Structure formats: C-alpha cells, structure tokens
Amino acid sequence: MPNIRRPAVAGTWYPGSATALKRAVEIHLARAETDAVNDIEELVALVAPHAGLMYSGPVAAHAYRLLRDHPYDVIVLVGPSHFVSFEGISVHRAGGFQTPLGVAEIDEPCATAIMEATALVGDYPVAHTREHSLEMQLPFIQFLAPSTKIVPL
C-alpha cells in the first residue's frame, strides 16, 4: 500500500513492539472496565487525550472501551498540529497510518469527500509527518476495531 505514514513516536510514547503495545492496551482497557459510565447503544463521538500511553492510556481507555463490540464504517480522527502551522485543516487522504499493530487504512473516498466539501480542508502531508496527536489514538482503535478505516484530520 503506497503513502503509509510511518510511526513518529512508537518506542518512545508507546511500546515499539506489537506484543508489548497490545499488552499495554489490554491492561488499560481491563482497568477501565470498572468504569461507572453505562455502555451506550450508539457512539457518535468520543474525546481522548493524546499524551504518551503511560500517561494518557488510563484515561483514553475509559473512552475507547465504548468501541468494544460495535461495528463502524469509518473513524474520523481530529487532532491538533503541534509542529506545522497552516491555514485550515489537513487531511491525510490516502494510504494508511502505521503502528506496531499494523496499518490503519484510510477511507480514501470519505477523506476525498471531506476535502472536496470545503476549501478549509486540504492535503498537507507534512502536517502529519511528526504529529503524535492522531497516532496516539491508533493503538486503541487498532485493538478494538482493527478493520475499521480511518480519516485523519
């Protein structure tokens, strides 16, 4: 698959091997199962932190556990740009984002449709190169919804 965005923080912000990363996600999710929040029938959005997994993982797990056993057509990720300044919104519209758990494939028709719907959204690949905010969401998504495509904004 061409246009794969390589991990920027694997091995530093979260474990660099698939086995260790899967285990870390499992532990965070297991601890979140005691959450008092009731499961919901239809999840349309969630907010999760994007710091290193050892810091944000316990909190993110409380949100992401709601994905368990629910199918989704696409997951749209929205995050800040910490390193690159630009006008509007940058979509990574083709290929995928890689982590030690594999490649999260981009829903190219959806990404293109979002870009074509407004001049605010453009294809600025450099905005995604070093950015960790969306990458930090992927271990939970890949663990709980491994075949669900993404749209990174």
Write up this protein.
The protein is of the alpha/beta class and 153 residues long. A hairpin with a 2-residue loop joins strand 4 (96-99) and strand 5. It has five helices and seven strands; from the N terminus they run βααββββαβααβ. It has helices spanning 18-32, 53-64, 108-117, 126-129, 138-144, and strands spanning 4-5, 74-77, 89-90, 96-99, 102-105, 121-122, 149-152. Strands 1-4-5 form a three-stranded mixed sheet. Strands 2-7 form a two-stranded parallel ribbon. The protein has a two-stranded parallel ribbon with strand order 3-6.
By secondary-structure content and strand pairing, the structural class works out as alpha/beta
The largest β sheet comes out as: 3 strands, mixed
Provide a count of the helices.
5
Number of strands: 7
Principal-axis shape equals globular
Q: What is the chain-wise order of helices and strands?
A: EHHEEEEHEHHE
Note the gap between the termini.
20 Å
Strand % is: 5-15%
- Radius of gyration, in Å, reads 15 Å
Could you report the average pLDDT, rounded to the nearest whole number? 92
Helicity, as a percent range: 25-40%
Give the uncertain stretches in residue-range form: none
The spatial strand order of the largest sheet comes to 1-4-5
List the keywords.
153 residues, alpha/beta, three-stranded mixed sheet, two-stranded parallel sheet, 7 strands, 31% helix
